[in-house]
Structures are given as structure tokens and as C-alpha cells.
Amino acid sequence: MSAMTLLLALLVVAYGGSMLMGGRTLRGHGLPSGSEWLVLGFVLGPLLLGVVSQSALAALEPVAGIATAWLALLAGLECGGVDAPKLRVGPWLAGVVCALICAALVGLALFVLTTRVLHWPVMQAASLAAALGLAGSETARQAARWAVERSAAHGPLPRLLEQLAAADDLVPYLGLAWLFAWTPGQVASVGLGAAQGFALTLGLGALLGLTCAMLLRTTRSPSDGFGVVLGAALLGTGIAFRLWLCPLTVMFVMGVLLAVAGRRATRLHALLVSTEPAVALPTLLLAGALVRPPLSWSLLALCVVTVLSRGLVRAALGWLLASASGAPRAARAPFALGSSATGALTPIIGLACAFRFRGSLGDSILAVCACVTLVGEIVGPAALRRALAVGVPADALPDELATLPGAQP
Amino acid sequence: MSHASKPPLGALPRLLQLLALGLVFGVLFFTARATPAFEGAFGVISAVGFLLLAGVLASELLELLGLPHLTAYILVGVVAGPHVMHLVDHRAVVELQAINTLALALIALAGGAELRMELLRPLVRSLSWATLVQCVIGALGVGATFLALSRFIPFTRDQPLLALLGIALLWGVLAVTRSPSATLGILAQLRPDGPLSRYALGFVMSSDVVVAILLSLTLALARPLIDPSAGLSLLDLSELGHEILGSIALGCSVGLLLAIYLWFVSGQLLIVLVALGFGLTEGLRYLHFEPLLTFMCAGFVVANLTQQGPKLLHAVEQTGSVVFVVFFATAGAHLDVPLLTQLWPVALALAGVRLLLVVLSNRVASHLASDEPVVRRWGWAPLVSQAGLTLGMAAVIERSFPSFGSGFRALAVATVAVNEMLGPVLFKLALDRSGETGRAGGLPASDLVQ
Questions:
Q1: CA angle, corner B320, sides to B317 and B325, nearest 5?
Q2: A392 or B421, which is more confident?
Q3: Between residues B22 and A396, which one has the greater pLDDT?
């Protein structure tokens, strides 16, 4: 398949995605975050069926780079307040702390595995542990929203779930900025230290976000505004790649500031947010095709340890939060299990790392991210739905859920 | 690039825009200095982003001087391009040709959709005379000037007279090409309505076909003059017939399909247009059909045979507002400034004579067709711009005559540079002076207003 054919195929996927997805989640079609496209990409990719050739993928790598950065921008917009539940300090802090604990513990487990058992060099092990720890620290916004929308439930538990999912994105994005800036030999090549690189990442995002917000006050149509945001996004993404900074963080910060400082541009925000389905599905497809796992026992060990450690940490944290929020005892276990839900962010982090750490390290990170995504996507949303069914008063549930066994009388 | 009647901005927003423009230049300047040897695709991405952002900002600022938006886009490209600040390198400029593919498809679609029969019918007499007179006087006059200046042109100095005649003929045909993209760019920005804007649209879009035929005829005529061993061959005309008829047939089919889609589905038009722009152009290259003509026919069919024209124009406007900025800025970055500084006296002379002849031809044609006063007075202004179409034809001539082709093309690039900068300014001036700017009631462009 040539690069042009692949591009057209991706456009068809984008078209299908945006037609199927009425809002921010797949309503009634497929998995909440569309992770089955990740599998489809892998099946069609060079490793299995070979429908998508290596050269076509290489030609479209920049497209994947832009798409991941764009999704980070949309996440930033949401985090900054567009189309998001109103964040309260308590749950927000809880989300951030949970993500930090999860990233630290999963990273630690992987660091021990890679240095003590697999005997990797410390630098490589630390990079892998940090990347996968950060990738594992998210609770998918899409999965949380899917569960809440599907159950149409309201009350403290659904609110907590949405707030946690919205808040914990901050940790992976900021962590990645540090990881990209800290990895030696890259940022150093342009004469920047880790702290400078980190500051530059945030500064570039902030500069572009504020510039866009300011310009949106003077542009007079949403399409011109869209041009301004797209231009800033491409500029920021290109510069981040050139300076070896983290493009996801640059775009995330830009999105947050664009949302905060440019609140009046509501039509533009709606226009931007509506692009998510059209961008997310082709990106997942590309990410799947780009998964080139170095087939070895080490990779299997990495997958198992990541999935297990993440599942355990998430479950423990979920249990604690559910208990603290006063959720009924029967809802705590499914809530704990459900908070391990993953979405588009995990493979996107994997993809960004695969571009950043070329070779077996990047390939391993992407492959493990894909594995974690699938497990989380399959286990999480169903458990969340169950948690909402048993954890929300019956009068706050739709009929179909109120009749489920275990639903609160 | 789409607002004729917008409220004026105060001093503070303008200052902020200037500051933002400086910041955007500064950020890319710092990056380019920090990574001088960077040669990845992401250099192209940052270039696109820069051209888009800086182009929009510069167009807002240069509006104060009365300059059209697309001139600002071109200027940004020139300043940031490989020959001045080198913020956008050669590789990026070459890679950005892919965006040109999409932009040209959108321009042609919009152009075709703007050509509505009820607007064209009253213009038939006027357009016929204008096409005839502009082609004859323009081609012969500029060709004669080229002949007169031939001893100052490096690649014609040692040519025999017959060969010189052939080359002058080719140059004459090149001189009667126009720029549909520049015309549509100005019309989209100013949303004019009136005899002048209708005339400009009708003339420029139809001249594309006329010039293609003229070039094939001239190539067939010039070949035996330039190369005495070559005979007169009508093979070019046969290929041209295949190309034109095939393009029209395919364009009509695409137009009908597009209309059906717009009628029944109409959602996600942005993705459909992007896929059509890239995918169909690729197919057309394989078939050796003319993309501009095909897309123009498709737009024409949608606008004239169905009720879906406004929908199509609206979608093209939304997509084009981003694509056109990059398209014109890339054209600016592509501009070979060192070559222009080398050839500017000849280029300026040829462009100047062309301008005079365009004005003269307009007077003659308007008199013969009894045009309205505004067309008599300003009808020449939209015909000055030259851009991609002219360069494309110069490339065809270069391929056909390798012995002098590269010099010919270089001179064409230099002349187009002059017309590319001057033309849009003159056309905007004409629309402003004739009072048509912002009267978007009659032209379909009014449908584009958000």
C-alpha cells in the first residue's frame, strides 16, 4: 500500500469515525475509546498481514506525530474547562495524587524488573519505566464518560469518576515533558539542560496558547480562528520535534491556556472539539500498524508486570477513593476494577515515545502501551458501568440499569 | 481570508498582532539557529504552521496599507523563504507542493461553482471579445517585445532568427496566462459584487482552457522554427483533445457524484474535499488529465445542474481559509529572489509591456463588446496576476525544449514574480475604486458568509 493510498484510507477511517461518533465517545458502536482500531492497525500492519507497508508508514509518521499532538491539544482544551465537568479542588487533587502514585509505583516495578531481572542499562531502564509509568497513570476520560453516559447516572460516584478522569491527565503530560527533556544526548544536542528543556516545553506551549487566545479576540470568523489554532499547533509540534521536546506537552499546555484565556471563543472550541473523533481513530489505526514488538520473553515480562502492577495500584486507589466518597460497599470492588480503564492517551504516549526513542526501546514502549490499552479498555468500562449500577440510587438510574441485579433499591 | 465588511480594529489589537508576528518569527528564528542541520519532516510541519500563523497575522496588519491578504501571504513566504531569512528551507518548499495540489483542487472547484449560467449568459459577448483581443494583442505584442529585447537575454543571444521567432511566440503565449488562484483569492477576501467581479471571474476561469489550447498550438508551430529538423506535428493537438475532453467528462461525473453526496449526506465535507483533492489529483495525473479543468467542471456541474452550489462553496471556503494561506505563502517562499535580482531589468521590461498591452487590449475589447463603463475602466486589473499556471506552462516548455528551456523558465519565474506581487494589489484597487468591494449580495460568494 503506497503512502497516498494509506493517506486516503486514513481519511476514510476519519470520515467513518466522525460520522459514527456523535459526541466525544462512541455511542453504541465499538469500545469507548475505539481501541479496536489499534488492533485492526496491528493486524493490517507490516508484522501480520502486511497490507500497510513499512515505507508507507514511514512516510506517514509526521501525520501520526501531528495527530497525537492535536489530540493532546484537545485534551488540554478539555482540561482547561471546555466541555468538561466543573472541577472541584478535592477530587482534582485526588486525581493528580492517584496518577502520581500510580506512575511512581508502576515505574518502580518496571525499573526493578528491567535492572535486576533483565539487566538493562540503567538509563534505558529508567526511560522505559518512566514512560510506561506515566502511560499507565491515566484513567480514560472516554471510558469514564462512556460509563456515565451509558448509565445516565448522576450522583457523587459518577461525579467523582468524571473528575478523576479529567484531572489525572495532567501527570502524564507534565511527566513526559520532563522525561523528554531529561533523556541525555537529545535535548543536550541543542545546548539545553533537562530543567531548561522542561521549562522551554511549558513556555512554548504557554506562548502559543496565549498568542492564539489573543489572536482569537481579533479574528472575525471561526474558520480564520481555526486557521490560527491550526497554525500554532503545527508550529508548536514542529518546533517541539526539532528541539527534541515533548510535542504532547507543548500542545496540552497550549490547549489549557487557550481554553482559559480564550473562553469567549466558544464556537471555535466546539469546532476544535468536534475534530477529535476524526483524528483519534486514524491515529489509533496508525499506532496499531506501527507496533513492532521485539518478540522476546523480556517484552512478555514487561507486559505482564505493567498490566499487573497498574491493575493492582489502580484497584487499591479506586477502592480507597470509592470508600472515601461514601459509595456503597457493593460498588467499591467494581469501581476499583473500573478505574483501570484506559483510552486513547496510553497508545498516544506510546506513539510519542516510539518517535522519541527510536529502536527497540521505543518499540517496546509502544507495544506495552498497546497491550495495557486493550486490557484496560476491555476490563475498565464494563466494571465502571457495573459500579454505577450498584453504587447510584435507583431513582438516579435509567430503567435498563435499575433492573440489573445488585442495583440499589 | 474572508471578510470584506468587518469592523475596524483599534490600535491595541493591531499592536498585539504586530507583537505576535514578531514572536512567531522569533520562535522559528531561534529554532532554526538552534538546529541548523535539521532535515526531518517536522521541519516542514513547523514551516506550514509558521506560514499559516504568520500569513494570517501579516494579512491583518497589511490590511492597514490597503494590501490584499494574498499579497501579505506571499510577502511572508518571501521573507521567511530560503533566499531571505531561511526560516523555511528548500526542502520544506518542495514538500509543500502537496498542499498546492489540494489548494489548486479547491480553487478550481470554487471557481467552477462560481461560474453560474445566469451570470455568464450576459457576459458571453464581452468574454468572447476580451479573450480574442487579449490573446492576439497580448501574445503578439509581448512576443515582439521579447524579440526586441532578445540580445539582452542570455539564452537568446546566439539563437538564429527563426528560432528566436519560435521562442518569442512561446513567450507571447506565456504572457496571456492569468492566475485563477489569485483572482479567487481576492474575490474570497473582498466579497465583491458587480460587473467587474463577474467579468473577472468569467474571464480568468475560461481563459485557462483557451490558454491550454493556445499553448499546444504554439508548441506545434514553434517546434519546426526552433529545431529545423523537426516537422510540423499535430500530435500535441491530439493529446490536448484527449486531455481536455477526458477532463471535462470526468469532471462532470465527479460533479454529479459530489452533488448527490451533498444532497443526501452533506456531512464531513472537509474530509471529503481533502480526500477528493489528493486522491482525484493522483488519479488524474495517472490518466494525464488536467486537474484544474476537471475540478472546475465538477464545481460548474454542482452549481448549475443542482441546488447544492452554496453548500459546496461554503465547504470550500472553510477548508480553503487554511489551505490558501499556505498555498500563497509557499508561492512566496518559492520565489527565486537571487534570480530576480539578476534578471530584473528584462523581467521588469517584459512585465511592464505586458501590463500596457493588457490595458490597451481591454480598451479595444470593451469598445467592441460595448461593455459597461466599470469594465472599460478597470477590466484589465484582474488580468495582471500570474502564478502557478504560468510556471506550470513554463515547465512544459522547458521539458519540450531542453536547449534553452532552463533559461526560459528562469526568466518566466522572474516575470511571474513581478506580476504575482503587482497583480493582486491592482485588482484590489480596482474593486475598491469601482465600489464593488463588500457588495456580496449578487455573487455566490455571499453564500459563504458565516
A1: 135
A2: B421
A3: B22
Q: What gap in Å lies between CA A312 and CA A189, rounded to an integer?
A: 39
Q: Decide if B114 touches A, using CB distance below 8 A.
A: no
pLDDT digits (tens, 9 = 90+) for B213-239: 888 788 888 888 888 777 666 676 777
Residues in contact with B87: Cβ distance below 8 Å, sequence separation at least 6, in sequence order: B25, B28, B29, B32, B47, B50, B80, B81
Average pLDDT (B46-64) is: 88
Most A CBs within 10 Å: which of B5, B35, B42, as the mutation test of the A interface?
Answer: B42
A270 reaches B (C-beta below 8 A): no
What's the gap in Å between the CA of B91 and the closest CA on chain A?
Answer: 15
Taking chain A (409 residues) in consecutive chunks of 10 residues, what is each chunk's mean pLDDT? 63 66 50 78 85 81 88 86 63 83 93 91 91 84 67 67 75 92 65 85 93 79 77 91 91 90 71 80 87 82 92 86 77 78 84 87 90 84 75 51 45
Residues A238 and B46: beta-carbon distance below 8 Å = yes
Nearest in space to A74 (alpha carbons), one of A344, A378, A399: A344
Rounded Cα–Cα distance for residues A224 and A211 (Å): 14
Cβ atoms of residues A351 and A68 within 8 Å = yes
Cell of A213: 487566545
Query: Which of B17, B25, B45 to mutate to test binding with chain A, by most A CBs within 10 Å of its CB?
Result: B45
- Burial classification of residue B12, based on how many CB atoms lie within 10 Å of its CB (0-12 exposed, 13-18 middle, 19 or more buried): exposed
Cell numbers for A36, please give them: 479496536
Cα–Cα distance for residue pair A144/A48, rounded to 1 Å:
32
Residue A130's nearest CA partner among A65, A174, A75 is A174
Phi, psi of A49 (to 5 degrees): -80, -25
Q: What is the pLDDT of residues B364-402, one digit of tens each?
A: 999 999 999 999 999 999 999 987 778 878 888 888 888
Task: State the pTM of this model.
Answer: 0.81
Residue pair A75/A33 in contact by the 8 Å Cβ criterion: no
Residue B163: pLDDT above 80? yes
Residues 6 or more apart whose CB falls under 8 angstroms from that of B139 comprise B169, B172, B173, B175, B176, B214
Query: Which chain A residues touch B46 with a CB distance below 8 Å?
Result: 234-235, 237-239, 241-242
Q: How far is Cα B45 from Cα B49, in angstroms, rounded to an integer?
A: 6
Average pLDDT, chain B: 84
- Cell numbers 498582532 label which residue? B17
Is a pLDDT exceeding 50 seen at residue B351? yes
Asked if A144 and A161 touch (Cβ cutoff 8 Å), the reply is yes
| Number of residues written out for chain A | 409
Q: What number of other Cβ atoms are within 10 A of residue A50's Cβ?
A: 11
Contacts with A, B 3-22, CB within 8 Å: 3, 6-7, 9, 13, 16-17, 20
Q: Write the DSSP string, B12-55.
A: HHHHHHHHHHHHHHHHHHHHHHH-TT--SHHHHHHHHHHHHHHH
